[in-house]
Amino acid sequence: MELSVTQGSPSIPFPFSRSSSAVAAGDDASSSLVIGFFSGDAAETTLQWAGQAFWASADGVDRIVELLLLAWRGVRVTLVVPLLKLGIFISLAMTLMILVEKLAMGAVCLAVKVLRLKPERRYRWEPITADPETGNSAYPMVLVQIPMYNEREVYKLSIGAACGLEWPTDRMIIQVLDDSTDPVIKDLVEKECMKWKSKGMNIHYEVRDNRKGYKAGALKEGMKHAYVQECDYIAMFDADFQPESDFLTRTIPFLVYNPDIALVQSRWKFVNADECMLTRIQEMSLDYHFKIEQEAGSSTFAFFGFNGTAGVWRISAIEASGGWQDRTTVEDMDLAVRAGLGGWKFVYVGDIKVKSELPSTFKAYRFQQHRWSCGPANLFKKMALEIILNKAGFSKVSLFSTLSKKSVSKLKVSSWKKFYVIYSFFFVGKIVAHSVTFVFYCVVIPASVLVPEVDIPLWGVVYVPTIITLCKSVGTPSSFHLLVFWILFENVMSLHRIKAAMTGLLESGRVNEWIVTEKLGDGKKAKPSTTVEGDVETQGDEQEMEEVTEATDRPHRRFWHRFHFSELAVGLFLTVSGCYDVIYEKKGYFVYLFLQAIAFFVAGFDYVGTRMPIS
Q: Which family does the record assign (predicted)?
């Protein structure tokens, strides 16, 4: 007997096929054994009975398998196929949404470049110079904030770069907000601040007795100090960021001469981009974010998400928008959305670059991406209705500048801007982009191989994804040869991003998790213009600290702890789908499926990025 399942399924032969006579023989197995035993042929008869029983049991297995296959066929036709077709329809619709977004943003950025519509042409900008009569009073008071948490590897670089900014020392206050829990590191940071204070810098070292609200809480506490009331603007830098000395002289004029501008955002430049494949891939993604996404938002609706660092805010805009809030892990985006709904404008200046460090370990990158994906989704859930009703604004706001100090009515936010924030910025950018990447490319496409009744149109599998990929590759042309690796790795990370986005939308599990991105001190490869004493000694201390940390953690770590089983499971699923395509379906998807499976296995076995030395 040979069982064959029709309607699109391949023929499946069964090796345990036998004749009907074997069934009858199996029915008399017990009696044959008894007769044979008394006749002295017990051994031979026993073997004969065992063979007949084997074929009888094989017939039962055949029937069970046949029933299972018939049941699967029924479930597949009535449930799996309709659901998979629905998944394909939704995935293709989302893919088209992303395609339209990428083409629109690319067209805007191309127009800005061709027409040379730099921010200095769209807004008033003049250099600020000292007045011969009043001296430095022409310069507004600027607060430079540096929040940090156990930043032993980079604290000297960030503080030294801030103290090296070209701005009158009597018109600038530096505020170091240290939430460190390590008393040794806190002592080192405080001593560094005192060293610069002895050199004439107006620097304040601030600590608090808890970490409530994490970074948002630290920034909120920092704004309460009396000396902050003297300042008009606030420049923010994370601990691993090193601004060039002319940062303030190039950004502050936008705020001084344009009272409706609340934020000036600069671009990130990565000092360790060439360290490994992980950092190269991150550079490609972030370059696209800054060069295309931020530029397009700034040039069309004067709105984009604040990146949390390397930007300058108007303090009155922060206050008018409700200040810093810690309801999500993306306090920077929260403030930006509220300020945008209040009528304030944002300016992105891509020519101003601030040095920073990319996470080079897979563990640190995963934690960072969880926060960057979970926080926006959670904020979207909490603010969607606010955005639609535009309740985040205020009836009156005070626009302060050195040219005028007057209260004006809040600028009306257009319906187009609200639509842009809800649909383009949040829904497509933070929800759809994370969802469709994993669902379509890592679930729907491989599942369609296993369900032959379903076909995906070629334009949805090849043409549209290719156009989207090419649009995103323009951010870093020098890394175009890494495009395939970038695509495969982004698909791997989409597994974590969709889990994080769902966590944010459902407000469950790790929704409020905040883990500071690990820095390895790679910023030392590109030092700021300001010379900092004791760098060589500090480097040795850092290496010693890393060794002690690894030695402490080593006894508690088992070899399987380095495995990421969710990636391994997806890699196995893709491998099975690829093999099925090679043997039966012949759709040609196996090339992609095998490559993507390898990428998941590489990540699953933790062979991504750098690893701290064991000794």
A: Belongs to the glycosyltransferase 2 family. Plant cellulose synthase-like A subfamily.
SS3 sequence of 504-538: HHHCCCCCCCCCCCCCCCHHHHCCCCCCCCCHHHH
What confidence score (pLDDT) does residue 389 get?
A: 84
Active site residue 209: no
Give the amino acid at 423: Y
Whether the Cβ atoms of residue 284 and residue 479 lie closer than 8 Å to each other:
yes
Token reading at 510: 């790790």
Contact between residue 491 and residue 441 where contact means Cβ atoms under 8 Å apart: yes
Q: Where are the alpha helices (DSSP H) in 535-610?
A: 535-553, 565-580, 590-604
Q: If we measure between CA atoms, which residue out of 263, 256, 384 comes closest to residue 318?
A: 263
At 522-545, the pLDDT tens digits run 444 444 443 333 333 333 333 333
pTM value is 0.81
Alpha-carbon gap, residue 94 to 91, rounded angstroms: 5
In Å, how far are 12, 73, 447, 464 from 78, measured between CA atoms? 22, 9, 16, 30
Q: Whose CA is closest to 427, among 371, 473, 388?
A: 388
- Residue 576: band (very low, low, confident or very high) from pLDDT cuts 50, 70, 90: very high
177: enclosing H helix or E strand: strand 172-178
Type of residue found at 420: Y
- Nearest C-alpha neighbor of 258 from the set 62, 400, 414: 400
Give phi and psi for 55, each to the nearest 5: -70, -30
Alpha-carbon distance of 138 to 125, in angstroms, equals 15
**Of the residues 179, 232, 326, 334, which is catalytic?**
179
Q: Using one digit for the tens of pLDDT, what is the confidence trace for 126-170?
A: 999 888 877 888 899 999 999 999 999 999 999 999 999 999 999
Catalytic pick from 238, 332, 522, 581?
Answer: 332
Q: What's the whole-number mean pLDDT along residues 185-196?
A: 96
Q: Does 179 participate in catalysis according to the annotation? A: yes
Residue 142 phi/psi, 5-degree rounding, is -125, 135
Residues 374-423 have pLDDT tens digits of 999 999 999 998 888 875 444 333 443 333 333 344 456 788 899 999 99
Strands 311-314 and 233-236: antiparallel
Unique residue bearing structure tokens 């970490």:
211
User: Using CA atoms in the order 43, 47, 49, 52, what is the torsion angle rounded to 10 degrees?
Assistant: -170
* Torsion sign over Cα 329, 331, 333, 337: positive
Q: Are strands 405-409 and 396-400 parallel, antiparallel or unpaired?
A: antiparallel
